[in-house]
Design goal:
By secondary structure, the protein is an alpha+beta fold. Helices cover about 40% and strands about 25% of the residues. The chain has a seven-stranded antiparallel sheet with strand order 2-1-7-6-5-3-4. The chain has a five-stranded antiparallel sheet with strand order 9-8-12-11-10, with helices on both faces. It has a five-stranded antiparallel sheet with strand order 14-13-17-16-15, with helices on both faces.
């Protein structure tokens, strides 16, 4: 419900959606706004009408209609003619009202929807004039008392010699001047007297024709009044007394029907009055009014001495006599014999009781037969005449128009009720404000949105319902140069909650550009905002996971290649060192090189931990016992100014994990916390169980519901800001001084936890410390530790070993280590070369030592193919990192083992001997 400014004279989104034509003018009467319904009604686009005077489009009594005159009329309503782009005129009802103190006017135009409470509104139809005058050869007029303008129709040229176009210029003054001087004073005096008494007038006088002669006219007219009693119209007809006469009774019937339409509210009562009026003209004890639509025939009124009213709301159109009149569009005056002849010719099917005489005329609207008005006589000798047919035809046009007007009024009331219902029952809030942002109207749906009753909102300022964070946003929008807008803003609910809404707003602007108020629609978007926030969070998590996965792949690849380089370095150092005199400079250099290589090996292990590609020895362990057993090591590692606090439950906290990796995680976190507390502080280590149930908190969305063991390491250190928190798990990212950290501590923690199926959550803020919380799935009871170490085995032998390694340096170093211990080594660079051995040679091979990743054929495939023909073959797979290819389910057992690179000579020989000595 937020205001904004506009340019020119745009009205609101609500008026844009009105089914009725709407416009407004400035104080000078120029059109400043034109809605889509107005364009649909008149055919003019906004560009064609904006800036034009109202009188160019609307006229009354043959004279341009002014906005001021519309406002001054009773209830701001008038019946006018609207000029269309198709060069025709439409009769419309114009409802006008003042728009603010600047003098502008709002108009609502409705085609043929004028109030049926007065005779005037039923007599405003051009179609009626044309039918009446075509049948009677007379002139019909409609005089507007206020303007003096007169609308003429009918046999104008036949009676006066002037064309209808020429005579449209004749108003009251010109008509008065045309009266014969000898008849003028008498005629005008009689009209004034009738107006004062409010009675009809009937006069005879001479009127000057175009050729200079005088026509003898009979003038019959009535005055129409508005609801306040003021005379506003004079309706009447003129005819040449030498021409065909129309029965005075028929004329009176026309006006009686019009009066009935203005007085009677119920349609059935109106039809009953019409029946009595027609009965005064002709025998009409039996009369019906039928209307046709897509569903068939609907009898709006039915009175008959013999036939029962049709059953149901509608009956099929069929081929009866009523359908015949509708189909032909012509009156039918006949008797039972004539009906039989029509039936014999197949033009209709005779139905109902036999009658003496039957007369039916079509009810036409805009030249189209939409119903039938029929009377029939059952009395012998009582036959309808051509004159009675003429009178019924004359009356039928009035009946059709009266029915149309009343039905239009009913439809209008239903439409207004429908739109009122929609506004009051809309889920969205529809509202209006004055220029000071005070609500002048708000729909009842505001209670669902903010918790306030509409009475609590109307009369109060918009800013009473805005939190402080939204007020500046609203003020900025109100001062915007845009004409209309859609905004999202937070409002304050009655309970103090924040309610996010979407506002469509349009200011109402006066002719001088002054903002007179605002109106619009407000929609609740809290669910959408929650969905958008959740989507943004998930997208951020996905981007972070994808980034970490990409970096992990890169780190794992680097570690793998680096391990291939370190393997021969460490291996040759181990072979070379015993050959050198102890304490010699050469031995010292070899030791230094080996030390550097070992540091590089440890670095690659950290990379493998981050990338989750290191080999884990998973078993069920008690996390509380792991932390408790590691407490002394932590205490000795940390500075004395760091206070260590450990909080553990008495019951076990079982997890399936590699204890050494858990200790590595704990050590890395503790050292990071120590670096964050250069002047000392507190380090707290706690562990507990926690159940995650649906719905889970957003921060735990990556974990499945269940029971988890939580390890938390918190410190009172410097803390981290948002940008730093986003990068803490990136390899080689560090905030420490150069030379004080590798940037692999937290990435290693991240990789180990992820490889254990857990989640890492970090909370931190500058000067408020850091808390790292690790969640691991709870496992079964811990496995008891096995005592003792396996006995030493001899590392030498004489068996035949098949070696497959694509890296030349690793292959040669491995071959040399095994050969020096007495083994017969067959070395190849790929699996296909190894398979080329003869069956006899392969049969003598006891052990396959193969790299996992090789071109063409990997180590696992090679092992499977060799074991297919040599089931006793033992396999030792070697690789720069452990992955599913080498540690797949069922692959590692007593016959197939894995040795990670870089490996030492001692480790290679020990694993080789153990495999060869294994039973089976």
């Amino acid at each position: 419900m937020m205001p904004m400014s506009v340019q020119s004279a745009d009205l609101s989104t609500l008026l844009d959606q009105l089914p009725d034509a709407a416009l407004f003018t400035d104080a000078a009467g120029r059109i400043r706004w034109w809605n889509p319904a107005a364009q649909a009604l008149a055919g003019w686009t906004p560009e064609q009408v904006l800036g034009k005077p109202l009188g160019e489009l609307l006229s009354a009594g043959g004279r341009p209609m002014s906005a001021r005159r519309l406002r001054e009329e009773a209830r701001g309503r008038s019946v006018c003619q609207l000029s269309t782009a198709g060069r025709r005129s439409l009769w419309v009802e114009a409802a006008g009202g003042a728009l603010g103190p600047a003098g502008g006017t709002i108009l609502i135009l409705r085609e043929l929807a004028a109030s049926a409470r007065t005779v005037r509104e039923l007599e405003e139809s051009r179609h009626r004039y044309q039918i009446v005058t075509a049948q009677t050869g007379q002139m019909v007029y409609d005089s507007d008392i206020a303007s003096g303008g007169i609308q003429w129709a009918g046999a104008v040229q036949k009676i006066t010699g002037f064309s209808l176009r020429e005579f449209h210029k004749v108003g009251f003054a010109e008509w008065s001047e045309g009266i014969h001087p000898a008849d003028r004073e008498r005629t005008l005096a009689s009209i004034r007297e009738a107006r004062q008494r409010g009675t009809p007038f009937e006069l005879e006088y001479r009127f000057r024709r175009k050729d200079g002669g005088y026509a003898e006219l009979e003038d019959y007219g009535v005055f129409l009044r508005d609801d306040s009693g003021a005379v506003i119209r004079a309706l009447g007809r003129m005819r040449d007394v030498g021409g065909r006469n129309l029965s005075r009774a028929a004329q009176q019937a026309v006006y009686a029907i019009a009066e009935a339409a203005s007085e009677v509210a119920d349609l059935q009562e109106l039809y009953s009055r019409i029946h009595r009026i027609i009965s005064s003209l002709m025998p009409a004890d039996n009369l019906f009014i039928a209307q046709a639509d897509s569903g068939g025939l609907r009898f709006l009124y039915f009175v008959d001495q013999k036939d029962e009213p049709p059953a149901g709301d509608r009956v099929p159109l069929g081929r009866g006599v009523t359908a015949y009149v509708l189909r032909t569009g012509r009156p039918l005056l006949t008797d039972e014999k004539g009906l039989a002849e029509l039936s014999d010719r197949g033009e209709l099917v005779r139905q109902g009781a036999a009658c003496v005489s039957w007369l039916g005329v079509p009810l036409k609207i805009d030249g189209v037969a939409v119903g039938v008005l029929a009377v029939q006589s059952y009395t012998e000798g009582q036959h309808y005449t051509a004159g009675e047919q003429e009178m019924l035809e004359f009356v039928s046009s009035q009946v059709a128009m009266a029915i149309r007007r009343r039905r239009a009024e009913s439809a209008l009331r239903e439409s207004e009720e429908k739109y009122r219902f929609l506004a009051e029952n809309s889920i969205d809030v529809i509202w209006r404000q004055d220029a000071g942002f005070r609500f002048t109207y708000v729909s009842a749906s505001v209670s669902r949105l903010l918790g306030y009753a509409k009475e609590e909102v109307e009369g109060r300022s918009l800013f009473d319902f805005l939190p402080p964070t939204s007020r500046e946003q609203v003020r900025a929008a109100a001062s915007s140069a845009q004409a209309r807008g859609h905004y999202e803003v937070a409002m304050a609910g009655k309970d103090g909650s924040e309610v996010w809404v979407e506002v469509s707003v349009t200011p109402v602007v006066g002719p001088d550009g002054e903002v007179l108020g605002y109106q619009g629609v407000t929609r609740d978007i809290r669910e959408r905002k929650r969905a958008e926030d959740e989507r943004d969070r998930l997208e951020a998590e996905l981007r972070q996971a994808q980034k970490m996965e990409s970096v992990g792949r890169l780190a794992g690849g680097i570690a793998h290649d680096f391990n291939n380089l370190l393997t021969p370095i460490l291996g040759y150092m181990e072979l070379l060192l015993p050959e050198l005199p102890a304490g010699s400079p050469q031995a010292d250099m070899v030791v230094a090189v080996r030390h550097s290589a070992e540091r590089a090996r440890d670095l690659t292990r950290q990379l493998l931990a981050f990338s989750r590609k290191q080999l884990l020895e998973l078993k069920s362990v008690d996390l509380a016992q792991v932390v408790s057993g590691f407490r002394d090591i932590l205490r000795r590692t940390l500075r004395e100014d760091i206070e260590l606090e450990v909080g553990l439950p008495e019951r076990p906290l079982p997890v399936r994990a590699d204890p050494g990796q858990l200790e590595q995680v704990l050590m890395n976190l503790a050292l990071n916390s120590q670096d964050a507390m250069p002047e000392g502080g507190k380090l707290a280590v706690r562990a507990w169980e926690e159940a995650l149930q649906e719905p889970r908190p957003a921060e735990f969305s990556a974990l499945a519901p269940g029971v988890y063991v939580v390890l938390e390491v918190g410190d009172s250190g410097a803390g981290m800001d948002g940008p730093t928190l986003e990068r803490i798990f990136e390899p080689f990212f560090t905030t420490k001084e150069k030379g004080r950290g590798t940037g692999l501590g937290l990435p290693m923690v991240y990789g180990i936890v992820k490889q254990h199926g857990g989640e890492v959550l970090v909370r931190s803020a500058p000067k408020r410390g850091t808390r790292v919380r690790i969640l691991l799935p709870r496992a079964g009871e811990p496995t008891a530790a096995t005592a003792g170490q396996p006995p030493d085995r001899p590392s030498s032998g004489c068996e035949t070993i098949l070696l497959a390694e694509d890296d030349p340096a690793v292959r040669e170093m491995t071959r040399l280590i095994l050969s020096r211990q007495g083994y017969n080594v067959l070395a190849f660079s790929c699996g296909s070369e190894a398979l080329a051995l003869s069956g006899e040679q392969l049969a003598g091979v006891r052990l396959l030592v193969s790299d996992v990743v090789m071109p063409g054929m990997n180590g696992r495939e090679l092992a499977e193919r060799l074991r297919a023909s040599n089931r006793g073959l033992k396999v030792l797979l070697i690789s720069g990192y452990a992955d599913p290819l080498s540690t797949g389910q069922g692959l590692l057992d007593d016959h197939i083992q894995f040795l990670p690179k870089p490996y030492s000579a001692e480790g290679l020989l020990a694993r080789t001997r153990a495999l060869l000595d294994a039973s089976g």
